[in-house]
């Protein structure tokens, strides 16, 4: 598995979701941000919209749940056909059980860490995951500035994965752009969410290709 670029539709025209997703042919996945106005101070969309979108796109869906009580809701997103389901460890009551439930539904299980959440306490849990998401902004909004203070954690996560032979993907999300993607790749990330960088570009498809080239450099 090489570099993967995953556009986030948060900054797309949400009234035309299916066609916005269809504009980007070179993406590997589509990243869908689910926010509940409790875990983060913003509200986006939920299961019914994700189910419809899953039916209208061939791209696999990478759903990022920024919600309270993911233990209750995350398995339903896997059942709805999302290829990857990410929950936040800060909100999960039983992350190991939850990761296993997501896998049992046939999806990739992924766990996210907010900028202030360290990775070391979760060292023994990495083997339960198909992806670890390191947030590089405080979750809740697109278009925020990349937090350089998260880079050592990306490096540390890569070290811990290598130490345990864990083949999970290492994703970064927040402020990823042509200016910041190289730093993330150099630190060990291999999967990149890009929202405003892609959807504010004149040619989103070309931006995906440019981001990929920068990360591979
Ligand atoms: C933020 C979301 C991100 C967001 C990224 O909480 O999780 O996926 O869409 O947007 P940019 O790339 O603009 O920071
Ligand atoms: Zn996200």
Automatic annotation (TrEMBL):
<keyword id="KW-0119">Carbohydrate metabolism</keyword>
<feature type="binding site">
    <location>
        <position position="175"/>
    </location>
    <ligand>
        <name>substrate</name>
    </ligand>
</feature>
<keyword id="KW-0479">Metal-binding</keyword>
<feature type="binding site">
    <location>
        <begin position="195"/>
        <end position="196"/>
    </location>
    <ligand>
        <name>substrate</name>
    </ligand>
</feature>
<dbReference type="Pfam" id="PF00834">
    <property type="entry name" value="Ribul_P_3_epim"/>
</dbReference>
<feature type="binding site">
    <location>
        <position position="173"/>
    </location>
    <ligand>
        <name>a divalent metal cation</name>
    </ligand>
</feature>
<dbReference type="InterPro" id="IPR011060">
    <property type="entry name" value="RibuloseP-bd_barrel"/>
</dbReference>
<keyword id="KW-0170">Cobalt</keyword>
<keyword id="KW-0862">Zinc</keyword>
<protein>
    <recommendedName>
        <fullName>Ribulose-phosphate 3-epimerase</fullName>
        <ecNumber>5.1.3.1</ecNumber>
    </recommendedName>
</protein>
<feature type="active site" description="Proton acceptor">
    <location>
        <position position="33"/>
    </location>
</feature>
<comment type="function">
    <text>Catalyzes the reversible epimerization of D-ribulose 5-phosphate to D-xylulose 5-phosphate.</text>
</comment>
<dbReference type="InterPro" id="IPR000056">
    <property type="entry name" value="Ribul_P_3_epim-like"/>
</dbReference>
<dbReference type="InterPro" id="IPR026019">
    <property type="entry name" value="Ribul_P_3_epim"/>
</dbReference>
<dbReference type="GO" id="GO:0006098">
    <property type="term" value="P:pentose-phosphate shunt"/>
</dbReference>
<dbReference type="GO" id="GO:0046872">
    <property type="term" value="F:metal ion binding"/>
</dbReference>
<feature type="binding site">
    <location>
        <position position="33"/>
    </location>
    <ligand>
        <name>a divalent metal cation</name>
    </ligand>
</feature>
<feature type="active site" description="Proton donor">
    <location>
        <position position="173"/>
    </location>
</feature>
<dbReference type="GO" id="GO:0019323">
    <property type="term" value="P:pentose catabolic process"/>
</dbReference>
<feature type="binding site">
    <location>
        <position position="64"/>
    </location>
    <ligand>
        <name>a divalent metal cation</name>
    </ligand>
</feature>
<comment type="pathway">
    <text>Carbohydrate degradation.</text>
</comment>
<dbReference type="InterPro" id="IPR013785">
    <property type="entry name" value="Aldolase_TIM"/>
</dbReference>
<feature type="binding site">
    <location>
        <position position="8"/>
    </location>
    <ligand>
        <name>substrate</name>
    </ligand>
</feature>
<feature type="binding site">
    <location>
        <position position="64"/>
    </location>
    <ligand>
        <name>substrate</name>
    </ligand>
</feature>
<comment type="similarity">
    <text>Belongs to the ribulose-phosphate 3-epimerase family.</text>
</comment>
<keyword id="KW-0464">Manganese</keyword>
<feature type="binding site">
    <location>
        <begin position="173"/>
        <end position="175"/>
    </location>
    <ligand>
        <name>substrate</name>
    </ligand>
</feature>
<feature type="binding site">
    <location>
        <begin position="140"/>
        <end position="143"/>
    </location>
    <ligand>
        <name>substrate</name>
    </ligand>
</feature>
<dbReference type="GO" id="GO:0005737">
    <property type="term" value="C:cytoplasm"/>
</dbReference>
<keyword id="KW-0413">Isomerase</keyword>
<dbReference type="GO" id="GO:0004750">
    <property type="term" value="F:D-ribulose-phosphate 3-epimerase activity"/>
</dbReference>
<feature type="binding site">
    <location>
        <position position="31"/>
    </location>
    <ligand>
        <name>a divalent metal cation</name>
    </ligand>
</feature>
């Amino acid at each position: 598995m090489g570099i993967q670029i995953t556009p986030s539709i948060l900054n797309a025209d949400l009234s035309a979701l299916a066609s916005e997703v269809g504009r980007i042919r070179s993406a590997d996945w589509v990243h869908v941000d689910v926010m509940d106005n409790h875990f983060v101070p913003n509200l986006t969309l939920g299961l019914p919209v994700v189910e419809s979108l899953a039916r209208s796109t061939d791209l696999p869906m990478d759903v990022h749940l920024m919600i309270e009580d993911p233990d209750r809701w995350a398995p339903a997103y896997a059942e709805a056909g999302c290829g990857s389901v990410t929950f936040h460890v800060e909100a999960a009551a039983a992350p190991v059980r939850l990761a296993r439930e997501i896998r049992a539904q046939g999806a990739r299980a992924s766990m996210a860490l907010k900028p202030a959440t360290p990775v070391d306490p979760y060292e023994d849990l990495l083997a339960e995951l198909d992806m670890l998401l390191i947030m590089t902004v405080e979750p809740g909004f697109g278009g925020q500035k990349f937090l350089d203070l998260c880079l050592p954690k990306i490096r540390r996560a890569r070290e811990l994965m290598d130490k345990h032979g864990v083949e999970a993907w290492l994703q970064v999300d927040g402020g990823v752009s042509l200016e910041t993607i190289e730093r993330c790749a150099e630190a060990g990330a291999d999967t990149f969410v890009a929202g405003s960088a892609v959807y504010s570009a004149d040619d989103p498809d070309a931006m995906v290709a440019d981001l990929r080239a920068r990360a591979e450099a």
